[in-house]
Each structure stands twice: as structure tokens, then as C-alpha cells.
Amino acid sequence: MKKQEVILCENLSADLRRALSACPHDRLFVLTDEHTRQLCLPLVSETLASEEAIEICIGAEDTHKTLETLATVWTELSTQGATRHSLLVNLGGGMVTDLGGFAAATFKRGIAYINIPTTLLAMVDAAVGGKTGINFNGLKNEIGAFAPADSVLIETDFLRTLDDRNFFSGYAEMLKHGLISDTEHWAELLAFDTEHIDYVHLKQLVGRSVEEKEKVVEQDPQEHGIRKALNFGHTVGHAFESLALAQRRPVLHGYAVAWGMVCELYLSHRLTAFPKEKMRQTVRFIKANYGTFFFHCKHYDALYDYMTHDKKNTAGSINFTLLTEVGDIRIDQTVGRELIFEALDFYRDCMGI
Ligand code: GLY
């Protein structure tokens, strides 16, 4: 798999011009959602207008990450004359970069694309590393492909207008990168003043977080081994997210991951001796900033069932990534039903439900 170029922007328009000229194309398309079209497109519209970019706009938020939306993007590309040599710029959060990336990966068997993530979650996770896809059959990212963008342009100025919930959603993935990298980075993330954000410091932390992700992806682009580290918190997190969706009270991905990390830190403590005090410190941060996802023990079976769909599983067992220490990763840890239920008990207990 080719390596994508990730740029922490100093000047988005200039960086975009460079990225466009590094990627020869006959026609240029730009995919936005109804929010980023209004709020973010104006920042790059001059650069895109000089190339007569054709706009495609889709509905915002995860509910639109569907086969139907994907089909409308394919239709637009097809009817507006895209060829195999066309280029797609995805301007938006993780929904736009995931779906747009998958549209690009599949249209005429693959066209080039550039991601310009506009949310923290997309900057530190979704837009980087080549995972693309859509939700299907009630399951998150059930259909997709590994297909890296040519370039990812990260403009952290977009974060200045991000709402709190989307800030914390992305911050959960940064915290995950902290947990799988080293104690110093993890401690810096826990100490960051999230109430009075210093955007210069945040930009440094975003750069560090993206570096961590790239380091892992470079070693294992298609997730046969160490890339599973990036799924820390996600086995339980995706189950929370799916349950919430089924109950028509959707939660933001990063919140589900944060709550999932509470359970998976517990499993790490029980099975691979993750230090209790570091578990407690992380759980305190999550409880203080993410609130609680409410569920009852009668939902344990349903949650377990969702976990059986996790892409890391091999037939018949649920496969976790656990930690023995901050930065010390144990992939392919099989965990039985009883211990998973114990982790859900721990969650309900320490989150006060
Ligand atoms: N979001 C996890 C990964 O990119 O592998």
C-alpha cells in the first residue's frame, strides 16, 4: 500500500495548491457535507475555483454514512464526467473522509483523493491511515477498503470553531494514542486544560498524535498485526455505539471509544497486569469529561453479540487489544464472556450507574 503524505498545515491554500499539483488530474471534484460546505469550503474555494472543481454535497453526520449516500456520490462522479484520472478532495469530518475515500477507492476501480479533515476525530484518526468505508446492516464500517489518500492536509485552525462534544470525541482517539505510545505523552494528554484550550499546544499534540498513528500504520497498513493496537477501546466501544444506535440515541464515536477504554483498561488490569493507578487516573479523566453511557445488565447479551461482529475476531472468539503498561501492547488477547461481563460490571460501578 502506498504511503500517504500527511501535512500539518501552516497555510492551507498554499498546501492544497502543492498537493493538487503533486497529483496530476483531468477533473477535480470536492465532496462536502451540508455543514462543511457552508463553514469550511469558503477557506479553500479560491484554490478550488481556479481548477473549476465540481462540488458534491451530502447530508451531514453518521446517519448518512450509507450505501444510498455512497450511490449518490458515484452517480455525481459518473454523470459529471469523472474519469480514472480525476481527483476527489474530501472536506469534512470522519463521515465525509471515510465515505469519500471509499467512493474514490471504488469508482472506476480507484481514483486518487486528498483528505482535508475538519474535525479533531478526522484529523487524528479517520482521515489518516487509509481505512475507508460505510456503515451497513446496522454495523459500523461493515463495508470498506484500505485505500490511502494521496495527501492529508491537517489545518488545526478548523478546531477553533469546533463544538465541545466533537472536540472530546476526537480527544478520545488522542488519549488512545497516548495509552499505546508512552507515559509522557499519556500524562500530557491527561493534564491538558480542556476547559481553556491553548490552540498552539493543541496543534503540537495533534501532530504528535498523528505521528503515533502513522508509525503504527506504516508497520502494518492492512491490520494483520500491530495496527490492531489502534483498536484499543474499540471492541467494547463499537458495541456501545451499536447499542446506542439501535436504541435511537446515537452517541459520537469518540465518546463510545472513551467508555470502551474504561472496560478495556479493566480487562488489561485483570489479564495483562496494567497498573491499577494508571487505570484509575485514565478512568477519572473519562468520567469527568465524557459523562456516562447508561445501560442495564439486561443489555449485556446484546453488547456481547455486537462484540462478536468485531473485525478483529477469528471464528468463535472475541479478540481484544490489551495493555500491560502505557505503550506496552498485547494484541490478539482472547477474552471470554464472563470476564467481558465483569468489565461491564466494573464500568457500571465506577461510572456510577
Ligand atoms: N481507527 C483505527 C485505524 O485506523 O486502524
What does this molecule look like?
The protein has two domains: 5-161, 3-Layer(aba) Sandwich (Rossmann fold), CATH 3.40.50.1970; 167-350, Dehydroquinate synthase-like - alpha domain (Dehydroquinate synthase-like, alpha domain, Up-down Bundle), CATH 1.20.1090.10. It has 14 helices and ten strands. The chain has helices at residues 12-21, 34-39, 41-49, 67-79, 94-106, 120-126, 164-181, 183-191, 199-219, 234-246, 253-272, 276-290, 300-307, 337-350, and strands spanning 5-8, 28-33, 54-58, 87-92, 112-117, 131-136, 139-146, 151-154, 318-325, 328-335. A hairpin with a 2-residue loop joins strand 9 and strand 10. The protein is globular and about 55 Å long. The site of glycine has 5 residues, from loops.
